[in-house]
Write a structure and sequence with these properties.
3 domains; 6-stranded parallel β-sheet; 10-stranded mixed β-sheet; Alpha-Beta Plaits; Dihydrodipicolinate Reductase, domain 2; 14 helices; homodimer
Chain lengths: ~425, ~425
């Protein structure tokens, strides 16, 4: 590939990811030139405060607080957006695409919400819109889904896509920490925000799940289509049960296509200890893909952080630059085709259920009657504790979510059941 | 993307992979058309015996025993080679490239040996030569290395790239089977060949390691540049030691760039039980990548088998078809630049060493003196068994391979050492 003139990049945002990108572009300039077929140069950087000192080797003159001006600048060939949030990112990206400038973005929130509309604008104007960094940070996920599995049919994707909650669950599982203590430690280490809601309630994972489902199944799926349950209710008792039953508790994003319907959900799950996702510890992310031809595939790595995210942005940037140099447009995901979302009540899985019960003969008989009444079949049962501390732990066979909910409602009215404690779906078991 | 005329494929070989490819192309025709921007049609298939019945939905008229004729046929736009072996595959691929026809191949042996020369011919003629399926079957590996990590600097790649040996080692570790029994079981299940040499002696992994190193470091690396040691010497005693010390034994392909030199080797390794590679069981493959920006990355899946390999071939085929339709040439790995191969004696790692010794005072003193003499530092020591069955298990700190070899040679002449048993490198530990 011959090297032509420079490809000039307008960078929107220079926080953690933007600064890391500027550093990598500088440090690996030769490598990037060889691979892109042109020198990639950051010529304009839009920031809120141009006076702030930044750890990047860029002349002060490139900084401006006029983001729209960077997008419109005739000396900017490609726009990289790492501001985050919906506006003004959305308007800036749209303006760039309409000006026929390729866009690379790491913006999970925006792509989850407005991806399909932005893809359409990019296609109309024949330019690249790349967003590998928006899901699972540095892990190459969207490109393999788009290209390597281009001829395969994806059945299901299971993802550990939130590093904060995976860190918390790892501490609970391995150190016996409570949720509160593990969260406090994650906050102390900077893994969790002061307000951890977006992570621990599964909002962050739900946005990523929506993007994964959109790409995997070629259908527009938004955050509101995702059933969502966080990890705040997971107890150390559940962790002990999981270990003794051969499971590990993980917050999973699940996206699957069943009978022409799409189901996307985020919830804690019991994952068999021998499943590759069970070995994903601390703040690492991983995405496990089940497809017709390729079988099982897992992609593992750093889901967040300045450098890993910058690495993903850079991969996209080199791609966009190479396409620009070659006068080509990169691969797209094809046109999205709407598909029905399966109601969560129709989704099937085995369930783990922990109940506080009276410790006397006949209890199991009373409880198992309710399971039977709603057609939920019990696979295993184990008593833990005795007397006032008696609890029963059930693992069911595969059951419809609606039937399980009905069973639990009924159980709450059985007098020997003092309390229905945890209910956690089992995912990843051959069944 | 608008759909133009058909892209016509000439398939060389219709064994396991070729037949699986033909089936997937048929079953997922709509998906492939949408993604490639054209219908992909297999118009010619070269086989040895045209009379043999095959489980594919292709008209008998497309079969021929004239492979060169398929390559030369003006009605063939892309050539897919799944014959395997060096010749005639090499000559056919070269002829296709010189006729400006993109080539997709799954041929590990050929690419490991003649890759750099074939890449040059492809570049000269401005056509795609894609070979994702040649390493780790269905796992997207080469495309992420080429594209997603295009701007990153790769430091080291650790791979479990041979499913047969991983299956054997898993059986030894989990069921306590001996090497011979585990091999026999692998043969019974069809995972191992009647002559298992290529797998158990590491030749298959070495070819893949050469391709990985070539792509990861942009330098021509051939099979002869790979230091190679198989798994036939791994004992159940090593497996027990590994477990008690917190390791799992894996056959690893290791490719790294250190101080401008490249080191590529295949050998059994003690992998810490918490390392993601330790969770790669049975016949699965995985490749663990360490790079500057992205940090740690692992890609996991099926390394062999008709369908997974066909999936990788198909990903390349869609890529090549899309480029053909768009009049573009796909991404390349850039020009290869020769780099020195680091002599294996200069490679450093910690070592596990098991020795049969006399069981009496002063033994450790005599042995540790030899370690000290060659500058090899001991990290831990444990006695196993007693009396005639006494063995010492050592884990060293990081040491030069040449120093370790000198230590072992010296130890063989120490009278309290009855036998130096196993020596296994430790890989993947923070040190």
């Amino acid at each position: 590939m011959t090297v032509v003139g420079d490809v000039r990049v307008g960078l929107l945002g220079c926080g953690n990811v933007g600064a890391a990108l500027a550093r990598v572009v500088d440090e690996h300039a030769d490598l990037i030139t060889a691979r892109a077929g042109a020198r990639v140069v950051i010529t304009r950087v839009a920031v809120r405060d141009v006076t702030r000192a930044r750890d990047v080797k860029l002349p002060t003159s490139v900084f401006t607080d006029d983001a729209a001006g960077v997008v419109a600048d005739p000396e900017v060939d490609i726009v990289v957006e790492v501001i985050g949030g919906v506006e003004p990112a959305r308007a800036l990206i749209e303006a760039a695409l309409r000006a026929h400038k390729p866009v690379v973005t790491a913006n999970k929130e925006l792509i989850a919400r407005d991806g399909p509309e932005l893809f359409r604008i990019a296609a109309e104007h024949g330019v690249d819109l790349l967003f590998e960094a928006s899901v699972a940070g540095g892990i190459p996920l969207l490109r393999p889904l788009r290209e390597s599995l281009a001829g395969d049919r994806i059945r299901r994707v299971l993802g550990i896509v939130n590093g904060t909650t995976n860190y918390i669950l790892t501490r609970m599982a391995e150190d016996g920490a409570s949720f509160a203590d593990a969260l406090a430690e994650a906050q102390r280490l900077g893994y969790a925000e002061a307000d951890p809601t977006a992570d621990v309630e599964g909002f962050d994972a739900a946005a990523k799940a929506a993007i994964i489902a959109t790409i995997a199944f070629g259908a527009p799926v938004g955050p509101d289509d995702v059933f969502r349950e966080g990890i705040t209710q997971v107890t150390d008792d559940d962790m002990r049960s999981a270990r003794s039953l051969g499971y590990v508790v993980k917050l999973l994003a699940v996206a699957e296509e069943v009978g022409g319907e799409i189901s996307v959900r985020v919830h804690p799950a019991m994952v068999p200890v021998h499943h590759p996702l069970a070995a994903v510890r601390d703040s690492f992310n991983a995405v496990f893909i089940e497809a017709d031809a390729v079988g099982e595939l897992m992609l593992y790595g750093r889901g967040a952080g300045g450098n890993p995210t910058a690495s993903a942005v850079l991969g996209d940037l080199v791609d966009a630059a190479r396409n620009l140099v070659g006068g080509a447009r990169g691969a797209t995901f094809g046109e999205l085709v709407g598909k029905p979302i399966r109601p969560v009540g129709d989704v099937e899985s085995p369930f783990y259920v922990l109940m506080e019960v009276a410790d006397r003969p006949g209890v199991l008989h009373a409880i198992s009657g309710e399971f039977a009444r709603f057609g939920v079949s019990i696979k295993s049962m184990e008593q833990r504790g005795a007397g006032d501390d008696a609890r029963l732990v059930f693992i069911t066979h595969r059951a419809r979510e609606a039937d399980m909910v009905a069973t639990l409602d009924a159980l709450r009215h059985v007098d020997v059941v003092h309390r229905v404690g945890s209910v956690i779906r089992v995912v990843g078991e051959d069944d």
